[in-house]
Amino acid sequence: MSSQQEALSILQQFIADEEADLAGRGGGSFWPSNWHRITPLEGKAESLLDAAAHERFCLHYLRRTHVPPAMSDAALPRVLDTYRQWLPRAQQGDAGAKPHVLAFLLGFDARGVLPGAQKDQKTLQARRKLLTHLGNFSHLPGMRAKPKGFQPFLPLAGHILQVLQHTSYRQDSASVDAPYHAFTDLRFWGMVYIVLMTPALRETLLADLMNGHPELPRRDEVLGILNEFVQAVLPNCAAEETGFLALAAKLDEHQRSRAAQTESAALARQLQLPFGENEAWNITINAPLRGHDRWYSPPYMQLVMQPDPDFDWRLLLDTGKQRYSVNSGDTLQNDGKLPPLAKLADVPQWLAQVKASHGLDFDFDQGRIACGRKRAMAKTIRQWIDGGA
């Protein structure tokens, strides 16, 4: 089989498998095992496939990568029609479709057409380039740490703001009453970052999110992350941007107030730990079950605390046979029917209780208490833990 025939076969198998997946007849397994063979062929697909097959390839490539493949200007209208037919399924979350990503790429969605509607391949490639750039990040702090990499994309800020407003700043297509909503989507926050870097637009975005959209899912968490991005751009704001600066100060004060009300902050005050008023800190406590010396793997327990209103404290107990997990008082897993832990301040007494009732005795002499640079605090925290014995 020639290399061209092999390439055609790979593309045809991919299309057939994805068509079955879209129709609910199984399928969807070819891409995970062969994505590394399919992606190098995206630019060749138009010449290898007939027009109808190429349209389906483009659709399924977008479904899997959330980025459209390269194509000619002649193919673009046909492919856009195919995308338009798929939009009702996309709004239901097919293949993890994100409303802001599709509206950004195409300039339209099932609700209507934006001023930045897709018209040519050059525009499509510019938008695709941004999504590819955002795909290089694995976490939000890393994104904020590299602002220079976003500078080439600032001309897209106007279109991005229209997209975010059009999609009501949603990061997924789930219904408002769904049990889970995305709020840390890297592409969404990368787009927000670009708008916040644009002096003429950042006040509009900040006012939108602070004063509007009360129905926004996970609104408190969204505003918490927004504050971190606002703080990242503040050093580059001009004194004349009084409206933006006033909103930024109001948002930051709100987040500080929420942080001060966390159980972690209350415990730090109780123990008189030497943290600054607005300092972001993290304490992690690990201890193995007595008789073991590895504090970092089962059988062990771990307690993490920080003055973050959206991630206050978490305790994990893992014996290798059973797990108990609690997040800020909400029990997530309890295989061994341990007594529930409702408050961070009760951890020492809870540890004494599970030792007495279940024989789970953790050896803090073999453990580790990490407090960042303030290592002297470990002694105070150890005394707090031992106080429950």
Fold topology:
Elements: H1 3-22, H2 30-38, H3 45-48, H4 51-65, H5 76-91, H6 99-106, E1 108-109, E2 112-113, H7 121-134, H8 140-144, H9 157-166, H10 186-196, H11 199-211, H12 219-233, H13 242-260, H14 263-270, E3 283-288, E4 300-305, E5 313-318, E6 323-327, E7 330-334, H15 347-358, E8 368-370, H16 377-386
Antiparallel strand pairs: 1-2, 3-4, 3-8, 4-5, 5-6, 6-7
What does this structure look like?
There is one protein chain. 49% of the residues lie in helices and 9% in strands. The protein is an alpha+beta fold. The chain has 2 domains: 3-256, no CATH class; 266-386, no CATH class. The strands form 2 sheets. Strands 7-6-5-4-3-8 form a 6-stranded antiparallel beta sheet, with helices on one face. Strand 6 (323-327) and strand 7 form a beta hairpin. Helix 1 crosses helix 4 (51-65) and helix 4 crosses helix 5 (76-91).
